[in-house]
Amino acid sequence: MALHADIDARAMFLRACALDVETIKPGNVSVTSAGHGMHAAQFIASANAAAMGLFAPHARVGQRILDAVRATLNAVRCNTNLGIVLLCAPLCAALEHVSTDAHDWPHATRAALSALDIDDARLAYEAIALANPGGLGDAPEQNVHAPPTVDLRTAMTLAADRDSIALQYANGFADVFDMAQRIEPSNETQAMFDTFLTFLCTWPDSHIVRKHGAAMAQSVTQEALNYLPRAQNIPSPELMQWDAALKARGINPGTSADLSVATLFVALVMHQTRRMNKKWHGTC
Predict the structure, then answer these.
(1) Would 1 be classed as within a structural domain?
(2) pTM of the predicted protein model
(3) How far apart are alpha carbons 145 and 277 in whole angstroms?
(4) What is the domain range of residue 39?
(5) How many domains would you assign to the chain?
(6) How far, CA to CA in Å, does 29 sit from each of 36, 51, 128, 145, 269?
(7) Which among 230, 131, 113, 225 has a CA at the least distance from the CA of 172?
(8) What is the number of alpha carbons within 13 Å of residue 160 lying toward its C-beta?
């Protein structure tokens, strides 16, 4: 049984992407703080461009990734959302097999990941090469600049120890779903910030590792841990100072932001399904 038509998952995706820039997250682009040669309007345009590919009915995961990346590059001429696309493509594919209360979305996502094949890998590799993410480097196995020889999930699993997005493919998006189920999105901006800070505190940001090295990424994680006790006070002068300091050094915790968008997307859909189920059963 498919997700109920009254639940607009595409709108929830676009809302999560909007929250990404509406929320001040240190080192990330926001509506009040551009950075890294990008500004908030590009991220909103990217989300709208990518949504058509991500939510294409019955499309394979690799095709969703490639179409979304192509649409993004056509819209803004730079890589603003590759990580978001890589995370959300399997989630969107799985939604076509989710019941009205979304309780089986994790199971459907694991099934979508298990169904990935070498063609998905080929399409995803093409998308990643087109986006040309900063600090990509040369992977020791399954380099995206060469044709894949394994399916996409296997390729991601090979990178899981050095990339938090790849880790989600390996573990069935366990971190995203676990975090989403703990979110109460009544205050969406606070939920986005808390999610971002939690991911940044949990492990060194993969994007920072690729561009600046593990030591720098670990130092930013320590800064996040130091800020955690004051996380309810946003936006604050201290938060803005941290944001400016990271941008001055060219440091962007982009992977933590990408994981946060995917998590808020899941949380918003789940929250909406719970509300709809209460309405259908006359309990609201």
Answers:
(1) no
(2) 0.93
(3) 46
(4) 9-277
(5) 1
(6) 8, 20, 21, 28, 24
(7) 113
(8) 15
